[in-house]
Amino acid sequence: MLEYFDAFQIGLTATPDARTFGYFNENVVSEYTHEQAVIDGVNVGYDVYLIETRISQEGAQVSAGEYIERREKLSRRKRWELLDEDAEYSARQLDRDVVNPSQIRWIIKTFREKLPEIFPQRNEIPKTLIFAKTDSHAEDIIRTVREEFAESNEFCKKITYQSQEDPKSVLAQFRNEYYPRIAVTVDMIATGTDVKPLECLLFMRDVKSRNYFEQMKGRGTRTLGEDDLRKVTPSARHAKSHFVIVDAVGVTKSLKTDSRPLERKPSEPLKDLLGAVLMGAKDEDLFTSLANRLIRLERMLSDREKDDFKQEANGKTPSQIAAGLLAAYDPDRLRIKPGKCTAFLPTETRIKANCIKRRKSS
To answer: What is the maximal distance between C-alpha atoms in the chain?
Structure first.
């Protein structure tokens, strides 16, 4: 990098923000997007499953005359108190100032019931990381997970700076051993820590920072071969092809991320997607979803099956076909036609397009 570029300063970052672009005057020399990384097999893509509750969206009210449990933040000591007037709390206060055990249980129960649908043909729970709001919230989640899954303490553990066990030791177990299957953290392994067998991220906290959210998602993007995955997840049938974000707080609904999931038609089988292309359909969601399926398919095929695929596809691999499908709707690669709306194109491309339009009109 230093020898190639003739510059006084060079910036290299996985999570650029407005300050980075501003400091370098928006002079982006090269970029490597999430889609390109997935096509090249450097990272795996992801799916999103939503778990929504009314309380997590709107908050709730506790009526006067009910007994509520008060907790001391430092000592965690509990006491019961009779509420003498109605008490309302917002969604933002949930799990920070107010704890609703039923809401936590409903999320964990729904997650448990939907796992056979999210990860079919699995005999064990995939390695799952749950992001909690606070250390106290993490404790509530761990207790609920153990009860709902009817498992022992080793099944679900906390990895935070306040863990009673050595967090590095628990992290090594989570990375290399069968147990724990589920880990709960606040900030400790949200960034900069690789757990390659990780296949599921459950967000029970919102994230305001776009960069931080990208880093948290990055815990699940790491690739892993079939043999290594089976060492910790024996029922895995192929290499790690993707990971799943289970969103219980609406964190994926905001526009805080550039790396959107490629899958746009999760309910449609691959056969129907191919049939739609055969009939001449060309919508972006169809091409993107088909590209996503082909990328995952390549990680599931044996060497012999890959050779058979190339023979049927005129020498192209599934990832090469997927790259072509994604390029079909890449605005940077689309041919610019005079008079075409260019509001969504990069600045330099818009300037060229506007010049073409002005020349024609003159």
So the answer is: 80
Structure tokens at 342: 């260019």
Complete DSSP assignment for 238-266? SS--EEEEEESSSTTTSS--S---S-S-T
Helix (H, G, I), strand (E, B) or coil at 101: helix
Helix (H/G/I), strand (E/B), else coil: 70: strand
> CA 222, CA 219: separation in Å to the nearest integer?
7
Q: How far apart are CA 12 and CA 29, in angstroms?
A: 10
What's the domain range around 169? 45-52+101-247
Q: Is residue 69 over pLDDT 80?
A: no
Tokens standing for 69? 């449990």
* Omega cis (within 30) before 266: no
160-170 pLDDT tens trace: 887 778 888 99
Contact (CB, 8 A) for 136 and 142: no
User: Mind listing the pLDDT tens digit for each residue in 94-142?
Assistant: 777 788 888 999 999 999 999 999 999 899 999 999 999 988 899 999 9
Would residue 189 count as lying in a domain? yes
Pairing type for strands 78-82 and 67-71 reads antiparallel
Which of 232, 247, 262 is the C-terminal boundary of a domain? 247
pTM above 0.85, yes or no: no
Type of residue at 87: A
Residues 85 and 108 in one domain: no
Distance from C-alpha of 26 to C-alpha of 346, rounded to nearest angstrom: 11
Is 306 a domain residue? yes
CB neighbours of 287 closer than 8 A, spacing ≥ 6? 277, 325, 326, 328, 329
CB 80 within 8 A of CB 70: yes
Q: What is the chain's Cα-based Rg?
A: 24
Residue 15 falls inside a structural domain: no
For residues 59 and 93, the answer to whether their CB atoms sit within 8 Å is: yes
Counting every residue, how long is the chain?
362
